[in-house]
Specification:
The protein is an alpha/beta fold. It has 13 helices and 9 strands. It folds into 2 domains: 27-127 and 256-311, Periplasmic binding protein-like II (D-Maltodextrin-Binding Protein, domain 2, 3-Layer(aba) Sandwich); 128-255 and 326-345, Periplasmic binding protein-like II (D-Maltodextrin-Binding Protein, domain 2, 3-Layer(aba) Sandwich), CATH 3.40.190. It has helices spanning 2-24, 36-54, 65-74, 88-96, 136-142, 170-181, 191-201, 212-220, 231-238, 270-279, 282-292, 317-320, 327-344, and strands at residues 27-33, 56-62, 83-86, 123-135, 162-163, 205-207, 226-230, 244-247, 254-262. α2 (36-54) links the parallel β1 and β2. α4 crosses α13.
Length: 347
């Protein structure tokens, strides 16, 4: 009996010892979001602290918003992604398709109302303005005035030096909506926008480029001198030392709400919710403002706008004046518009 007891105790002890490494085993969290400078900031400045605190390895899947949404659709029966970071338009689609779970422990009192989504199934991560980016040095050398209007992109002097993202990118979509609105249409009447692109803007376009890395490469090589782009990416580019100019057009810049949601799945990682909360913390929000150029969504972020900065971020009045598109109408028509864009504009 005594021998049996000792043997049992040894087995239990061995089991406990074996269980310790399992309990401490590093977890894995899959995050999908933008590439380029945004990915660099996440990997260098934001992931390490979270990984260390939670003993987790973050696997990052880079791609634009439509790429990430397509991955969610392709994996809907067996989701790999735990957290998705996409633009506001695709996020509305992701929510409608059931890909997002409600966010728990949301610091609601600290957030600006514009950051909240219905039922808290997603939340804004940062505010971006879609406007016009240009090479200040090249413009000065050519004695060109800085652009001030969306209509400036029609100017023949920009032939083959203008870059615009395609329609499956939010920046390109914003441009299409703007030209529709300015010519008697809008989200519910998009034809005028297509006409302006085909007849007046399109002839100047060097390439319809969605890749952030390729965009900066085109500017760095001197092939591109002006583009439709976002304030965050423009700031990140300016921070490399490139002579970036960024304009809020007089007709208005457009609001892009970079957004994040925990992905709905049968066995979600508890760290998905923790990571979303982490991204909303004042410290991370401040970092995303200073390093990447997001207008913070957390009221407690301590980011202060530099009046001499090359790129002014959408904070204060600049944020209030941004134009918001009718995403319900856009998302109902976006597939048809994408096909039409390929057929008529990028033909």
């Amino acid at each position: 009996m005594k021998k049996h007891t000792v043997h049992l105790a040894m087995l239990v002890a061995a089991g406990l010892i074996a269980a310790v490494p399992a309990a401490q085993a590093q977890q894995r969290l899959v995050v999908a979001g933008y590439g380029g400078s945004f990915e660099d900031i996440l990997r260098q400045d934001l992931f390490p602290a979270f990984e260390k605190q939670h003993n987790v390895k973050i696997d990052y899947v880079a791609g634009n918003s439509t790429n990430t949404l397509a991955r969610l659709q392709a994996q809907k029966s067996n989701q790999e992604i735990d957290v998705a970071i996409v633009d506001d338009g695709p996020m509305y689609q992701a929510i409608a398709l059931g890909f997002c779970s409600p966010i728990t422990n949301l610091p609601a009192a600290d957030l600006y109302p514009a950051a909240r989504y219905k039922d808290d199934k997603a939340v804004g991560l940062g505010l971006v303005a879609t406007g016009i980016m240009y090479n200040k040095k090249a413009f000065e050398q050519k004695k060109w005035p800085a652009p001030t209007s969306w209509d400036d992109l029609k100017d023949p002097k920009y032939k083959s030096v203008l870059v615009i993202p395609p329609l499956n990118n939010t920046y390109g979509l914003h441009a299409l909506v703007q030209y529709a609105r300015a010519n008697g249409g809008g989200e519910k009447k998009i034809d005028p926008g297509f006409k302006v692109f085909k007849d007046e803007v399109g002839p100047n376009v060097l390439v319809y480029e969605p890749s952030p890395g390729k965009m900066t490469e085109l500017f760095s090589s001197g092939q591109a001198l002006i583009a439709v782009w976002g304030s965050g990416r423009a700031k990140a580019f300016a921070d490399t030392g490139f002579p970036v100019g960024f304009v809020y057009p007089r007709e208005g810049a457009y609001a892009l709400l970079s957004s994040v949601c925990p992905v709905a799945k049968p066995k979600p990682s508890p760290l998905a919710q923790a990571f979303v909360t982490y991204l909303l913390s004042p410290e991370v929000q401040t970092k995303l403002g200073s390093a990447y150029g997001y207008g913070p969504v957390n009221k407690k972020a301590t980011y202060t706008e530099d009046p001499n900065a090359a790129v002014q971020l959408p904070v204060g009045k600049a944020a209030q004046d941004l134009i918001v598109v009718d995403w319900d109408t856009v998302n109902q028509n976006r597939d048809d518009w994408n096909k039409r864009w390929t057929r008529e504009v990028e033909r």
